[in-house]
Amino acid sequence: MIKITKEGFNMLETFFAPKGQINFKIVHLKPTCNACRDELRLVPGEPEPNDEIFLEYGYMFFVDKKLMELAECITIDAARDIPILTTKRSIDLRERV
Question: Which among 55, 41, 16 is positioned nearest to 91, based on CA atoms?
Answer without folding.
Answer: 41
